[in-house]
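hey so u asked for the seq, here:
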Amino acid sequence: MKKIILLIICFIVLVISSAYAKDENVYSGKVHNQKTTGVERTFNGELVCLGCDLKENGARSECKIRGHNIRLKTQNGTYLTILPNKYSEKLLSDTSMMHQPITVKGFHFAKANMIDLTSYAIGDKIISWCTVHQTMDTCSQKQ
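ran it, structure tokens below
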């Protein structure tokens, strides 16, 4: 009888602990807590200059002097910073992509409100990392 009660208690503890377990994902070869590290997500929105966008609401931005600060403005109006690296270089430097509908996919770091891009799509073009050319492109030789 004691063994059955002990077994039932162990089962209850196991069920309760699994219900409260933190979500984890694999990123960069390590297991992390999603609250502080990247979670793969997809966002829809448009690229905007944060300063110019806020200037319309009274901010004292100086984009013409200090340069534009490109962000992804999601459909709900939230601004996401795109992590500047070799994966986002083309996207952040090409002003022709501004104010066009865009879908970006990458690892979202919620506490920093930042996304580390893995791919993005503008119109019918999907741009992602090409290991052959070592750049973000529409290449069909992605390995």
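The beta strands are 24-27, 30-33, 39-49, 70-74, 79-82, 101-109, 114-122, 125-130, 135-137. The CA atoms of residues 63 and 108 lie 26 Å apart.
lmk if thats what u needed
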